[in-house]
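Q: what sequence does this backbone want?
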């Protein structure tokens, strides 16, 4: 069983028999199919079915010599509706299965963002047709959360909001210059980090950390595509999984000036998500890259 099945409304799928029924339904009544040849020259298939808007299950496997489909692995998906960034992406095949991770740099995060590639079939076709020239590509980032918490927003006056936005822009420019080898920018970033650490160390003695930090996007654990996030809820919709009748919240978040779509099972969230509030949780990051 995939750890994040419950995130898209399959919390009640607990036995292998129920899972086999779900896989058959996905393959027989798919909404999207992608076929390509793998490294061994055999036909590989990717079947996806939406069980709620932009959210569902993908089954991947190989066709045998008789033309029968043999499932290899499956994963739940949630395809974001918003282009989060436009960057050059590096792709790497996972060791255990015919799936891929994408990695890109973004100055707003200040680190490499690694995500699970949802449209692997499109990538394989583009690679097979030699259409993967190095260039910036639109990326729609999304995330599945197994559990999360709704937080109240941090109050900021309009003057402070404008000032903070200006400071962030200056910070992003320094990061870009530092990556280019500018020693003055590296020194300025180091000084900023030391000042921030000093301020936070004093405030944390009397304040909660989430009253100091309004949003965050941090790697979590030893799996490279899992993150600890906290973001402002821009929009929120409660949708129903037509297979299990479970309800799922689909939220658009703003975290570190990055737009990100997140879904979570209604039974696994503490609080009621509403625009203007914040969401905090551990997520599995996914992405759709436009080729």
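A:
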């Amino acid at each position: 069983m995939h750890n994040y099945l419950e995130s898209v409304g399959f919390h009640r799928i607990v036995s292998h028999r129920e899972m086999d029924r779900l896989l058959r339904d996905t393959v027989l009544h798919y909404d999207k199919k992608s076929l390509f040849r793998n490294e061994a020259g055999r036909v590989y298939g990717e079947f996806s079915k939406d069980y709620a808007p932009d959210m569902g299950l993908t089954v991947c496997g190989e066709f045998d010599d008789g033309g029968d489909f043999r499932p290899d692995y499956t994963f739940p998906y949630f395809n974001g509706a918003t282009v989060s960034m436009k960057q050059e992406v590096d792709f790497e095949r996972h060791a255990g299965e015919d799936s891929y991770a994408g990695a890109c740099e973004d100055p707003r995060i200040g680190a490499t963002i690694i995500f699970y590639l949802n449209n692997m079939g499109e990538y394989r076709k583009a690679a097979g047709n030699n259409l993967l020239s190095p260039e910036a590509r639109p990326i729609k980032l999304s995330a599945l959360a197994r559990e999360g918490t709704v937080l109240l927003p941090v109050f900021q006056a309009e003057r402070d909001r404008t000032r903070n936005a200006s400071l962030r822009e200056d910070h992003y420019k320094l990061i870009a210059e530092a990556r280019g080898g500018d020693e003055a920018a590296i020194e300025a970033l180091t000084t900023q980090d030391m000042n921030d650490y000093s301020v936070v160390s004093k405030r944390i003695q009397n304040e909660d950390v989430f009253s100091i930090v309004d949003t965050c996007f941090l790697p979590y654990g030893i799996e490279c595509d899992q993150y600890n996030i906290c973001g402002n809820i821009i929009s929120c919709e409660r949708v129903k999984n037509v297979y299990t009748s479970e309800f799922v919240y689909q939220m658009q978040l703003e975290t570190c000036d990055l737009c990100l779509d997140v879904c979570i099972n209604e039974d696994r969230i503490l609080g009621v998500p509403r625009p203007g509030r914040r969401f905090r949780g551990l997520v599995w990051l996914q992405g759709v890259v436009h080729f």
